[in-house]
């Protein structure tokens, strides 16, 4: 938990809403295992993947949510490094094995930390994800592939992505990434 606590301490929220979300994650870390899916709030890690040369980003279809979102997800047992979790999930969900930070300054540095609502689905009750979000780049976008038939991936311009996205927190994430890619 020390690594996650250090990450939270070093992170500079962009506004008061994000500061409140970061404070909730800090309390979650102080209360025990922030990665445990047993609680109503738990930490996840995700990323937007970009092709910086063509200024495109990759979105993944989430069948449960019925919308295009970033890649990412939950920690596997024994995992506690959000950067490594986001990278593993991004590789699994996109098939891209060359993912790296857009620049050395962005290595292991979150672009956004946000608490998002997750509706009930199947046997899982409604809950919240404290999502730590990163930016990865690829030099081989043509090698992207869907993890499964119901989890399509799609390269989009930033404008196209904004037209597909409905969640304000993800629109904010896309705006931050676009500013970094410029």
Topology, pairings included?
Elements: H1 2-10, H2 16-31, E1 41-51, E2 56-62, E3 67-69, E4 71-73, H3 82-94, E5 100-101, E6 112-118, E7 127-137, E8 153-157, H4 158-164, H5 168-181
Parallel strand pairs: 1-7
Antiparallel strand pairs: 1-2, 1-4, 2-3, 2-8, 5-7, 6-7
What does this structure look like?
- The protein is of the alpha+beta class and 182 residues long.
- The protein has one domain (2-181): Alpha-Beta Complex (Nucleoside Triphosphate Pyrophosphohydrolase).
- Helix content is 32%, strand content 27%.
- It has helices at 2-10, 16-31, 82-94, 158-164, 168-181; strands at residues 41-51, 56-62, 67-69, 71-73, 100-101, 112-118, 127-137, 153-157.
- Strands 1, 2, 3, 4, 5, 6, 7 and 8 form an 8-stranded mixed sheet that branches.
- It is globular.
- It starts with a helix and ends with a helix.
Amino-to-carboxy terminus distance: 34 Å
Shape: globular
Largest sheet: 8 strands, mixed
Q: The CATH topology, please?
A: Nucleoside Triphosphate Pyrophosphohydrolase
CATH architectural designation: Alpha-Beta Complex
Relative helix content: 25-40%
- pLDDT average, as an integer? 95
- What is the CATH first-level class name? Alpha Beta
Uncertain stretches: none
Order of helices and strands: HHEEEEHEEEEHH
| Rounded radius of gyration (Å) | 15 Å
Domain unit count: 1
Give me a quick take on this structure.
The protein has 182 residues and is an alpha+beta fold. It has helices at residues 2-10, 16-31, 82-94, 158-164, 168-181; strands at residues 41-51, 56-62, 67-69, 71-73, 100-101, 112-118, 127-137, 153-157.
């Amino acid at each position: 938990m020390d690594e996650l606590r250090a990450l939270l301490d070093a992170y500079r929220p962009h506004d008061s809403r994000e500061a409140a979300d970061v404070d909730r994650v800090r309390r979650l870390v102080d209360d025990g295992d922030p990665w445990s899916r047993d609680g109503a709030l738990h930490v996840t890690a995700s990323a937007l993947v970009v092709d910086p040369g063509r200024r495109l980003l990759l979105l993944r279809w989430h069948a449960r949510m019925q919308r295009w979102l970033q890649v990412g997800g939950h920690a596997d047992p024994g995992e506690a490094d959000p950067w490594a979790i986001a990278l593993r999930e991004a590789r699994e969900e996109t098939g891209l094995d060359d993912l790296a930070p857009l620049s050395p300054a962005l290595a292991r540095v979150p672009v956004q930390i946000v608490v998002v609502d997750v509706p009930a689905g199947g046997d899982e009750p409604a809950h919240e994800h404290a999502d730590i979000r990163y930016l990865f780049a690829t030099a081989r976008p043509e090698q992207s592939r869907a993890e499964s038939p119901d989890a399509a991936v799609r390269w989009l311009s930033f404008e196209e992505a904004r037209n597909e996205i409905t969640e304000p927190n993800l629109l904010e994430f896309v705006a931050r990434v676009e500013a970094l890619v410029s």
